[in-house]
Amino acid sequence: MRASILLALAAAALFGAATPLCKALLGTVDAFTLAGLLYLGAGLALAPRALKGGLPARLRSLDARNRWLVLGSVACGGFLGPVLLLSGLAVAKSASVSLWLNLELVATAILGQFLFRDRMTRASAGATLGILGASVLLTIEGGRAGALGGLLVGAACLAWGFDNHFTALIDGLGPVESTFLKGAAAGSVNLVLGLAFSGTAPGLPAAAGALAIGALSYGLSIVLYISSAQGLGASRAQLFFSSSPVFGMLLAYLGLRESVSVAQGAAMLLMALSYAILAGERHGHGHGHDAIRHTHWHRHGEGHHEHDHVGLTVAARFYGHSHAHDHEAVEHDHAHVPDIHHRHGHDSPR
After folding, report:
1. Are 339 and 231 in contact (CB under 8 A)?
2. Nearest to 218 by CA among 23, 42, 80
3. pTM over 0.70
4. FRET label pair with 15: which of 186, 245, 323, 347, CA 20 to 30 Å apart?
5. Closest alpha carbon to 340 in 284, 298, 286
6. Distances from the Cα of 196 to the Cαs of 32, 33, 37, 144, in angstroms?
7. CB distance 15 to 221 below 8 Å
C-alpha cells in the first residue's frame, strides 16, 4: 500500500508541475494546440516501450470486458474530458477552472461508491471530506466565473472520474500501454483541432517545450497514477493525486516567487492531515479469490503475487512492475483496499 501511495504522490507532483510550467507557453500557443502537444508528448515518450511488446496483438487478445474498459478510458479521458475542459476555459477564468478540477475527486469517489464497488470506509470518507474542505479553501482564492464554465468543467471531471475507474480495472494491458493509447489518440485529435481553429503552428521552441512537459507531466504521471490506482483503487489513488495543486503552488512559490496565502497554507495543512488519516486506514475480513490470469501493475510480498522472476531488478521487485501472471483460487483474511483484486461489497465498512 505504501508503494502505491508514493506512486500517487509522485504522479501528483509531476501533474501539478505542469500548470506553472505551461504558464509561459499559453501566450504563444492556443489551448487546443497546447493540449494536443501535451498528450502527444505523453504518447511519443511511451511509444517505444508500449509498442515493444506487440501492442496490436495484445489489443486483439483482450476479452470483451477489457476492450470496453480501454474504449471507455480513451473516450472519457482522451476525448470528452479535454474537450469539455477547454470549452469551460473559453467562458471562465483560468484560476477558477484550475480549482474546479478538484471536482474530479468528488466524481471519482461517488462513482466508486455507487457504480464500481470502490467502497469508502469511515477513514477514507473522513479523508475525502478533509480534502474537499481544503478544496473549498483554495476555491476562495479563485474568484467567480460563469455558471456555464462551472458546468462544463464539472462534466469534464465526471468524464475523468469514469476514466479513473476504467483504467484501474483494465487487467489486459499494462499502465504504459494504456497511457500510450490515450496519449496518442487524444494528442492527435486535439492537435488537429488546435491547428484547424488557430490557423497557425507554434514555434519550434514552444512545441518542443510542450512535448517535454507532456512526456513527464502527462505520460509518466498517468503511468504512475494507473499503477497506484491498480494497487489502491481509483478513489483512494485520486485522494492522494488531488494534492497536485499543492505541488503546483510550491513550484510557483519556489520557482516563480509567487506568494502563499493564508487560505493556501491552511489547505495544505488540512490535506496533510487527511492523507495521514488515509495512510493509517485498515480494513480486513475473510474473502475468496477465483483462479485468474491477467496483466496489471503489482508488487511482491503482499499476499497475492509471490511468483518468481528471472532477472528481475531490485527496483522492479520493490516498486512494482507489470506483466501477465496467474493466480490460484484462494481464501484468506488480510488487510486490503479496493485494488484490482478486491472489488467486493461490504455490509459494514470498518
Report:
1. yes
2. 42
3. no
4. 323
5. 298
6. 10, 9, 14, 31
7. yes
Indicate left, alpha or beta for 111 from its phi (over 0: left) and psi (-120 to 50: alpha).
Answer: alpha
Condensed to tens digits (0 to 9), the pLDDT of residues 155-190 reads 988 998 999 889 888 877 888 888 898 889 888 888
| Cβ-based neighbour number of residue 70 at 10 Å | 21
Q: Contact, 102 vs 111, CB < 8 A?
A: no
Nearest C-alpha neighbor of 272 from the set 239, 234, 231, 317: 239
Count of CB atoms within 10 A of residue 38's CB? Answer: 27
Look up cell 495484445; give the residue: 58
Which residue has 510557483 as its cell numbers?
A: 252
Q: Which amino acid is at 86?
A: L
Bridge partners of 292? 327
Detail the DSSP E strand segments found in 300-350. Answer: 321-327, 330-335
Residue 119 backbone class (left: φ over 0; alpha: ψ -120 to 50; beta: rest)? beta
What are 130's three cell numbers?
Answer: 478533509
**pLDDT, tens digit (0-9, with 9 covering 90-100), for 201-223:** 888 999 999 999 999 988 899 88
CA distance 336 to 168: 16
Q: How far apart are CA 95 and CA 309, in angstroms?
A: 48
Kind and range of the H or E run holding 221: helix 221-232
Q: Which residue has the cell 491547428?
A: 195
